[in-house]
């Protein structure tokens, strides 16, 4: 985990450098506009629909089991700790009197979380939530909950576990074999969030499908494509380099920003390792017409940032979701590719993106409003629901509904938890 965090830090630093110096990867002289969004909430009816589509399905299995007991939250947390070590990404959180307490931190009453013990997701949530609470804009109920910020490859919410209380997570698996729908209640991550829209006039954009990122992937495609190293970020980077060297680099501009360490010795999906290029901050991706949302270890947390750009998002199908994915639809907010089946019923290869871009270019030439409608839908959605402000509003809605499943939560906090914490030296 620590290594992963260090790697993320390194990426961020590289990205900042690229922004300052110009990255040499494209049309850096093309201007883009960054439009700050402010805090206008959606219409109540839009917000209710958003909650019904995303929060309700996560709550439904737990509503069916209510009333729940708060002692089970503590028991469930201890059970998770038996197979998942470390406070960095698995925490027990108390909200009390509109203040956030991380109960499994190593230093009760310590300063705000930092990366000596907390994940970047915890650090960011703490800062943003505390600022909202202290401003008086947001009131949260007193409550006790489990907060998982791991990528969740372990599937904390796997229904085959004996779960007696729900927990919150940032990502969960859907449609993976075994066990049915995961029982995690999803919350927004607060680390990779944009409160701005990013725009370049469409005619000035480069007509290529763009991506930069570290070479992570889910490892879910070995059987589907028959290569041990089937990894979209690496394969599409390789196609880019292959095409460029052949003088026909007319579709993709994809590159990894760190060396790929896991090329299979035999039967690799790539004939050679593609070159590493500098990272490019997402606002500068607005210089390209087509933006690839490629999987990371799970789904990539960057989708909501790509949706702030007035370019079309090509979405790699992945068996993971963030909290808002259930409100966005193919060909309405994005265009899907990868793991596709052709009209002839045959499974398509890892190069299906070429056909998708060809079709998008045809539409762009013949029915350009169709392309611009998808982009407008995505930007409107991001502006309406995916800002920091509305993510905090989602926390409030989720925690209020969660608490309503536990009739004994206030009594448990007052009579059991606070005395126990007091005995351990907590000043709450
Ligand atoms: C809650 O917080 C307010 C403001 O910090 C403080 O004045 C009050 O005493 C607190 N109440 C309890 C019950 O801790
Ligand atoms: C779940 O609980 C049942 C009954 O207590 C037990 O037989 C089973 O082994 C448990 N399963 C897991 C995965 O812990
Ligand atoms: C570019 O050329 C290479 C090598 O001939 C070929 O494999 C690839 O499919 C071509 N790409 C496109 C986009 O035509
Ligand atoms: C590579 O492909 C060959 C031929 O399909 C197959 O016999 C072999 O088992 C594969 N090797 C690996 C490591 O997958
Ligand atoms: C790939 O798509 C098929 C449906 O076309 C689906 O059943 C399968 O689960 C997908 N695979 C993954 C790993 O998402």
Automatic annotation (TrEMBL):
Task: One Pfam family, please name it.
Answer: Glyco_transf_90
The organism is Chlamydomonas schloesseri
InterPro entries according to UniProt = CAP10, O-Glucosyltr/Glycosyltrsf_90
Keywords, A to Z, come to: Signal, Transferase
Q: Which family does it belong to?
A: Belongs to the glycosyltransferase 90 family.
Give every Glycosyl transferase CAP10 domain span.
Answer: 144-401
Has the keyword Transferase been applied to this entry? Answer: yes
Gene Ontology terms for molecular function:
transferase activity
Question: Which residues constitute the signal peptide according to the record?
Answer: 1-18
The name this protein carries in UniProt is Glycosyl transferase CAP10 domain-containing protein
């Amino acid at each position: 985990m620590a290594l992963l965090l260090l790697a993320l830090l390194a990426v961020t630093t590289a990205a900042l450098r690229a922004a300052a110096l110009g990255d040499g990867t494209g049309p850096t002289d093309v201007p883009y506009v960054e439009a700050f969004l402010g805090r206008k909430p959606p219409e109540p009816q839009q917000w209710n629909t958003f909650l019904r589509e995303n929060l309700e399905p996560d709550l439904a299995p737990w509503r069916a089991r209510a009333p729940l007991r708060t002692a089970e939250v503590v028991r469930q947390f201890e059970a998770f700790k038996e197979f998942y070590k470390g406070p960095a990404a698995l925490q027990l959180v108390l909200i009390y009197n509109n203040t956030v307490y991380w109960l499994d931190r190593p230093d009760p009453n310590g300063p705000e979380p930092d990366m000596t013990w907390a994940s970047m997701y915890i650090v960011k949530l703490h800062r943003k939530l505390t600022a909202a609470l202290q401003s008086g804009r947001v009131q949260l109920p007193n409550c006790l909950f489990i907060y998982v910020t791991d990528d969740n490859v372990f599937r904390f919410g796997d229904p085959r576990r004996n779960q007696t209380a729900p927990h919150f997570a940032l990502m969960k698996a859907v449609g993976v074999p075994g066990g049915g729908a995961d029982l995690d209640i999803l919350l927004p991550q607060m680390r990779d969030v944009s409160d701005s829209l990013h725009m370049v006039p469409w005619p000035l954009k480069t007509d290529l499908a763009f991506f930069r990122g570290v070479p992570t992937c889910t490892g879910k495609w070995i059987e589907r494509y028959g290569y041990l190293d089937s990894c979209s970020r690496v394969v599409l980077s390789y196609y880019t380099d292959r095409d460029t060297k052949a003088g026909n680099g007319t579709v993709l501009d994809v590159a990894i920003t760190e060396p790929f360490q896991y090329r299979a010795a035999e039967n690799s999906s790539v004939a050679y390792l593609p070159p590493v290029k500098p990272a490019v901050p997402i606002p500068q991706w607005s210089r390209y017409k087509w933006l690839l949302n490629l999987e990371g270890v799970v789904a990539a947390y960057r989708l909501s940032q790509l949706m702030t750009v007035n370019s079309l998002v090509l979405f790699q199908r992945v068996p993971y979701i963030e909290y808002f994915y259930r409100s966005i639809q193919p060909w309405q907010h994005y265009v899907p590719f990868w793991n596709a089946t052709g009209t002839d019923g045959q499974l398509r290869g890892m190069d299906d993106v070429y056909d998708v871009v060809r079709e998008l270019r045809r539409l762009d030439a013949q029915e350009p409003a169709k392309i611009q409608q998808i982009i407008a839908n995505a930007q409107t959605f991001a502006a309406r629901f995916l800002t920091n402000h509305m993510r905090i509003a989602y926390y409030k809605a989720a925690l209020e509904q969660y608490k309503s499943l536990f009739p004994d939560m206030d009594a448990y906090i007052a009579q059991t938890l606070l005395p126990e914490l007091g005995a351990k030296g907590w000043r709450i």
